[in-house]
Amino acid sequence: VQLVESGGGSVQPGGSLRLSCAVSGYTYSSYSMGWFRQVSGKEREGVATIRSDGGANYADSVKGRFTISQDSATNTLYLQMNKLKPEDTAVYYCAAAQGTYLGLGYNWWRRIGYWGQGTQVTVSS
Known about the structure:
The chain is mostly beta strands. The strands form two sheets. Strands 2, 4, 5, 6, 9, 10 and 11 form a seven-stranded mixed beta sheet that branches. The protein has a four-stranded antiparallel beta sheet with strand order 1-3-8-7, with no helix packed on it. A hairpin with a 4-residue loop joins strand 7 and strand 8. The longest helix has 7 residues. It is globular, with a radius of gyration of 13 Å.
């Protein structure tokens, strides 16, 4: 299983970015995927998760600003980030796991999931 993130970069506060995660080698019919982020020196935190039936979950800090989506035809996971704030600055990682779990806790995903290499998002004026 391979996950490859793209779309990170630098943006001013209030701006938008869309992250993509291309997934290959993953054949489970029932799955969950998610976006996580990590600031240097802090634990990785869940941002948004989605499962194969379309159910989704968001961290309170991003509700109303971020949207997670998936394209099953191209096996790609997306994170549309709007109204970005400086505190959104982090390395963003995508993850995939078998099952229907939508929790945002890193510990479960760390044990069970497959991970990408991360993409940097910097929000600064």
